[in-house]
Amino acid sequence: EAGVAQSPRYKIIEKRQSVAFWCNPISGHATLYWYQQILGQGPKLLIQFQNNGVVDDSQLPKDRFSAERLKGVDSTLKIQPAKLEDSAVYLCASSPYMSANTGELFFGEGSRLTVL
Amino acid sequence: AQRVTQPEKLLSVFKGAPVELKCNYSYSGSPELFWYVQYSRQRLQLLLRHISRESIKGFTADLNKGETSFHLKKPFAQEEDSAMYYCALHPGSGNTPLVFGKGTRLSVIA
After folding, report:
1. Any chain B CB within 8 A of the CB of A42?
2. What integer pLDDT is reported at residue B96 of this predicted model?
3. What angle do CA A107, B11, B8 make, to 5 degrees?
């Protein structure tokens, strides 16, 4: 079974530039999560999708971050304009379940963003 | 609000020694607790969940509601256990996400 795919793996940009990350979840997984992991910290949820609908985006900085999952499969996360504090690893995870109470989240390898 | 605390950033033990990675949580209800692991150059993956009461790779974790803890234990550490370990909490119901601790890096010294 193919895992969660993310690209690009690494991205370096200057502040105020824009960047987009792509995620392809495991086939058939209805729930998709984007997490932000800053160095030295645990993953923090940015947004959760159920199929193509947003379940939770309460921690997404909506003035600069946006995400979509138009056809209920792939998802993109965009940052525009980027700030220095956005330097982090952006993790995509998917799950076959609506709720995370089973703990069965399958993570991608992450996209490491460096903002200079 | 839910919170997960892992007090140790780094834990170093010798091979064959016992390991205990600490996790404390704050939540007033009955949460589900998990341990995730990330080996070098690998993805973050689920190690074990408290509800399964299972032993995975020799690791066990018991949920202590009185102390609000979910410490991860292994009687004899192996070099291949070296990794980042994250404790995570879910309220137990609903579509709320997992809340992760900051993680503990376990280094097993040969």
Report:
1. yes
2. 83
3. 75
